[in-house]
Amino acid sequence: MAEFPTQKLTNRQLKFSYWYITHKLSLRKKLAIFLVLVSLVSFGYSIWQLIFYFGNYEYDQASINRMINGSSIALGALENSRPSSLNLGSIQAMPQEGSITDFSLTAQNPNPNWLSTFDYQFVKPGVAPQTKSAFVLPGETKDILDASAVGTTAEFKIFNQQWRKISNYDALKNDYFHLTVSNENFSAGQKPGDPNIVTFDLLNDSAYGFWQVGVRAYLLSGGEVVSSNYLTLDQLRASESRNVSMSWNHRLPRIDQINVVPEVNFLDENNIMKIGE
What's the pTM? Predict the structure, then answer.
């Protein structure tokens, strides 16, 4: 005897099937109404958002512009709080006698309130490099020299660079920096092997002494720099005038002008002599 599928259904399942069949049309209508209501609500919300957007467009744009301008100001303040890099020129080579060359490079500090200190090397092929230290005062442009060096070409390397922000730089310079040069004189060697000598008087006309003072000297012929030299002086006391000599041990052309430029890092507290020292 064949079995009908309904014989395996429970009474509850049979009742639910009967209820679904008798209410199928009404359920479809209710579902359709629900979907229409959902669509109307979504459409209405979209229309409201469009009205809100266009109604507040100018306000939103103004807010965005304020955010952009505020970010620009903040970025500008951040940039102003950091020093710009030194501007380094190309290496200038002034050939001297034999394989001797005077190398120089211009360093410009574009920051009016930042001191730059660093170590550097003029690296020449086949020559062991010497590491030296230098500084560039705020807003200063100066030459970094490697005088009477062996070699004809060089590469400049800078490392261990440090920056220190300086307040009231102009006032500090007015108080500390009063180095003046006078009585410059050039004496050419009388015979081969004799040194060429530059002499001058260096006056520290300030109330502060310095442990180290540097001097750059340039020799000119026909208005052009033909050689340079650098000398470090120790313990130049306040109000002291010192006679200084610098020598060139190679032949030079006829020298018709001397330019002596003193320098001192008066922003380094360790370079300032205390009273009584």
Answer: 0.71
